[in-house]
Amino acid sequence: MLAGALGTICSASSVNAQTDKARLILAMDDVSSLVHLPVLLAQQLGYFKAEGLLVDIVEQPVNVFATNASAGMVAWSVPFTHILPSSRRDEAWRSVMQTGKTPQLALGVSKKTLPGFKSLKDFEGHRIGVLELDSFAQRCVDFMLSQAGVNQQRVTFIPLGSSLNAIQAFKNGLVDALCVTDPLMTLLDKRGEITIVRNLRSVRETSRVFAGLLPGNSLCVPASLVTKDPKICQALVNSVARSLKWLRTAGPSDLLHTMTDSPFLPDRALYLNAVENLRDSFSADGNLAPEVYANALRVHKLWEPAGSVQRGSQEAPYTNEFVMQAKKRFKM
User: Residues 289-316: what's their mean pLDDT?
Assistant: First the structure.
């Protein structure tokens, strides 16, 4: 899909010349997930076009992420830790903006299959559903299990692929717990089917679990794009900065007017509740603080010691320069 979209961009160069707009692919793992709301709002509210960008949003599994750094005009909405040094990826990516200041995940247990759940040690011998194996969600759960002294060899992770699959698997008892994003967790919570036992949507609980903030989603681009096309990067950041500012004061009627289509959102009240559950987790201005980056490095080293490098041995994989310009322009 991504290759096809790139082909479309190449063939559309003459159109771009006429419209005087740059075309960019923006990939994300699940367009129904509200962690991508600032990006989706920038599209719906016309902020990309206002900045001279024609953005094609495509859905891709995160495991495709590692192969696309040389693709040129491509950006990803992806957890920040995915661009940290990895033994499985040679390409260089840079974060140009932080959209999630927490992982924006929730870990919940089934009231049907784990009714007597008391602590994370009760996960031993049970199955936890995630959308992808070795995903950000699985790594966060692994960290929490390790901190709780759980025998992780006795916990099975089940890849579910999509939110709709997750609903069915949970309903049919194929998994005993889920660690996914909203609106799915809000949906199951409202139905009374799940008990939230770790809320990584909360700044307070995230700081408690990880001994500091662990950043969630960021806007990432190939490192070469930052140097070759800084105007494109600035336009991208400006657009989403406006979304983050809009979200700060958006009321129920504003949110409903921009309600994202989703096959498993049965009512407007649920949508509003899901957004409220995430409000604390969205970045206020897109800035990534040095101490948050340091904590992300520390946690990442525990996840992937072979792929980690010592601090200072290479250029930081993020920049706040575009965010600072956006903050000045939009008075954030």
Answer: 79
Strand-pair partners of 110: 194
Q: Quickly count helices (H) and strands (E) in the chain.
A: 14, 10
More confident residue, 14 or 70: 70
Q: Are 312 and 96 in contact (CB under 8 A)?
A: no
Task: Look at residues 297, 210, 186, 240 and name the one whose alpha carbon lies nearest to residue 40.
Answer: 240
Domain boundaries, position 134: 106-199
| Alpha carbon separation from 147 to 120, 134, 273, 300, 304 (Å, rounded) | 10, 18, 31, 15, 16
Indicate the pTM of the whole model. Answer: 0.89
> Looking at residue 61, what is its pLDDT?
85
> Which of 199, 232, 250 is the endpoint of a domain?
199
Tell me: do 31 and 152 sit in the same domain: no
Give the pLDDT mean for 60-88.
76
CATH of residue 115:
3.40.190.10
Do 289 and 318 lie in one domain? The reply is: yes
Tokens standing for residue 76 = 């990803």
